Amino acid sequence: MNKKLIKEVKSSFKKHFKTKPLIVFSPGRINLIGEHTDYNDGFAFPAAINKGIALAISKSDSSNSKVYALNKEALYEFETKNIKPIENGGWRNYVIGVVAELQVLGKRVGNFNSVFAGNIPGGAGMSSSAALENSFVFGLNTLFNLGLSKHEMIVISQKAEHNYVGVKCGIMDQYASMFGVKKSALLLDCRAIASETFKIDFTSYKLILINTNVKHDLSESAYNDRRDVCEKVSKLLNIDALRDASKADLDCIKSDISNEDYQKALFVINENNRVKLFSEAIKKKDLKLLGNLLYQSHEGLSTNYKVSCDELDFLVDRAKENPHILGARMMGGGFGGCTINLILKKEFKNFKKEVSKNFRATFEKECSIYSVKLSQGTQIVS
Ligand code: GLA
Predict the structure, then answer these.
(1) What is the DSSP string of 190-255?
(2) Which of 77, 281, 309, 322 is the most exposed place for a label (fewest CB within 10 A)?
(3) pTM score, two decimals?
(4) Continuous segment of H or E residues that includes residue 221
């Protein structure tokens, strides 16, 4: 599938720019567990997948840079001097944001021509944004010999998102997309920005995603609001981040904060613990516990952290009714996107049929169901 994407990008580049480009593939990600923990310096458990962004890029002698978004059939030309965020600029802000943040570091980025295309469904919570940012930072770093490490590159991608897109995201998406390992998930410590690689093999079970096709818009204030609440509570607790808090600590300030904020902070503390329990359960091959932790995570995201929606809750409820599914939860920032489900491989087809029918009957629209492969992170493709 990516071969096709890469071929399309190559041939579009040839048509537009006539030279031979560098090709970068940067994947999207799933997250097994540990949602909204990354910006709390906590733990998450993401993995890069076999869907992402393919970028063709080369240096240019002209006085500006060109980016062609193949899926949208839109060409954007810009000067690398005096870059500013574009109001409602969509994908353009990810690209110029990366260039601008490289410049902030004192890196000289020359003009370039580029074409990119992706096969991650937009708004699915699979981080097409991080894949796009990483593809450009990686491509530009290689092209202009900027000498950045992968760690430095993901911080640039994250800053582009903060300052040009307006989402105060954590580091999970950029990390997973950059550092992904084939057939593995990464137990990510978001304070150390370091991970332990776990080979993933759920034997007769597998992970599937169900996309509600409800598009979330993370730049909507809801995401940043959650982050503000967490920072406010940490400040009251006199700690750097909620990673450092226990429920007992939180209970000491319970009367000083609203019940809503209490519930949100409690969710983060519990979710962080769940990531550790999840990694232990993987080591013990305790699939039942893995599944329970997924359900608990969803419960917290929906009722305490309040980032779910009717469609996501519906899908998790259907999963709970199915004895062949061990666990399910919403994945990513929330307010739409996908659920991730741990299902008995041989029941996949039946469930797919059944859940599609029920979803259509309830919401009068379609859900989409995918299997994903855990794959390598951002890389140059020959
Ligand atoms: C989005 C953000 C991530 C993370 C998740 C929720 O994907 O980009 O940094 O906070 O939401 O876990």
Answers:
(1) TTTTEEEEEE---TTEEEEEEE--PPP-TTTHHHHHHHHHHHHHHHHHTSSSGGG--HHHHHHTGG
(2) 77
(3) 0.97
(4) helix 221-237
Domain count, the chain: 2
Going residue by residue through the chain, which has 382 residues, state the pLDDT in tens, using 9 for 90 and above. Answer: 699 999 999 999 999 999 999 999 999 999 999 999 999 999 999 999 999 999 999 999 999 999 999 999 999 999 999 899 999 999 999 999 999 999 999 999 999 999 999 999 888 889 999 999 999 999 999 999 999 999 999 999 999 999 999 999 999 999 999 999 999 999 999 999 999 999 999 999 999 999 999 976 654 689 999 999 999 999 999 999 999 999 999 999 999 999 999 999 999 999 999 999 999 999 999 999 999 999 999 999 999 999 999 999 999 999 999 999 999 999 999 999 999 999 999 999 999 999 999 999 999 999 999 999 999 999 999 8
Residues 30 and 167 placed together within one structural domain of the fold: yes
CA distance 13 to 15: 5
Distance 342 CA to ligand 1 centre (A): 21
Q: Are residues 142 and 254 in the same domain?
A: no
Q: Does residue 173 carry a catalytic annotation?
A: yes
Give me the catalytic one of 173, 249, 261, 313: 173
Cβ of residue 35 lying under 6 Å from some atom of ligand 1:
yes
Range of the domain at 94: 3-197+375-381
Using the mean position of ligand 1's atoms as its centre, give its distance from the Cα of residue 10 in Å: 31
- Specify whether 126 is located in the same domain as 33: yes
Cβ atoms of 107 and 146 closer than 8 Å: yes
